[in-house]
């Protein structure tokens, strides 16, 4: 319960951070790399390698979980009202999830089968900060995972 509360407080704390206005919707172009940390409710934890590349209207994040590689692609689009929309792209390029960006950061959610995932990220001082939470009930406590990343 404390981890969930801490995650919520961190997510709400985005108000104090601003994006560098260099690309669409104020997101800075560049490549950010580092190590993420994860923990699940079965008291398992670990590290993984993460790389995120921001180029124009596309954000591509690649993860290496001990030899297992994954990729997440987000498309950024400025709306007519000045807000920014995020679309999580599936492997076939179709929309698999959605989110929004504001001055302080971006959030998106993805729901597929029994997977529920929420991730928040922001850019500050040349780094990318990301936190996330995923629930997959079919995996029991091992399927409730949170993570944090600081990529430079």
Model description:
With 152 residues, the protein is mostly beta strands. The protein has 1 helix and 10 strands; from the N terminus they run H-E-E-E-E-E-E-E-E-E-E. It is 7% helix and 59% strand. The N terminus is likely disordered. The chain is globular and about 45 Å long. It has a single domain, classed as Lipocalin (Beta Barrel). It has a 10-stranded antiparallel β-barrel.
Itemize the secondary structure elements and their pairings.
Elements: H1 2-12, E1 30-40, E2 45-55, E3 58-65, E4 68-78, E5 84-89, E6 95-102, E7 105-112, E8 115-124, E9 127-135, E10 144-151
Antiparallel strand pairs: 1-2, 1-10, 2-3, 3-4, 4-5, 5-6, 6-7, 7-8, 8-9, 9-10
Number of helices: 1
Let me know the largest β-sheet.
10 strands, antiparallel, barrel
- CATH fold name: Lipocalin
Taking pLDDT < 50 over at least 5 consecutive residues as the criterion, the unreliable ranges are 1-21
Average pLDDT across residues?
A: 85
Radius of gyration: 15 Å
The separation of the N and C termini measures 30 Å
Look at the helices and sheets and give the structural class: mainly beta
Named CATH architecture:
Beta Barrel
Give the strand order, joined by hyphens, for the main sheet.
1-2-3-4-5-6-7-8-9-10
What is the 3D shape?
globular
The helical percent reads under 10%
How many beta-strand segments? 10
- Class, according to the CATH hierarchy? Mainly Beta
